[in-house]
Amino acid sequence: MTETQRLLYSAVTIAALSQALAIVGTRSNWVLALLVALNLLICVLGYRTGRHRIYWLLWGIVTIAACFMLGLSNPVSLLRIGVEILLGL
Question: For the whole model, what pTM was predicted?
């Protein structure tokens, strides 16, 4: 397993943890800040590997935008909101 794969699995694990905490009802600014910081750390480490730099850069930008605009801890939460909107219609 390469370093890029491990970082991608880490990003997916953080996204799953974030979704699980949201479903359980854990809402805290500290938890949000920790998950965003972990996402950004993974983005920086992924960018430094030199592989898939555009992906890691975009993931970091969307993470920051989702956090400041909507209070979400990762970009995957945007998909959840979209699905809920579509199912609600």
Answer: 0.78
pLDDT < 50 positions in the chain? none
The DSSP secondary-structure symbol of 51 reads S
Give the position of tokens 């992906």: 55
Q: Return the number of other C-beta atoms located less than 10 Å from residue 14's C-beta.
A: 21
The H or E element that residue 56 is part of is: helix 53-70
Cβ proximity of 43 and 60 under 8 Å = yes
Tokens of 72: 């979400």
Helical (H) or strand (E) element with 33: helix 29-49
Burial class (CB in 10 A: 0-12, 13-18, 19+), 18: buried
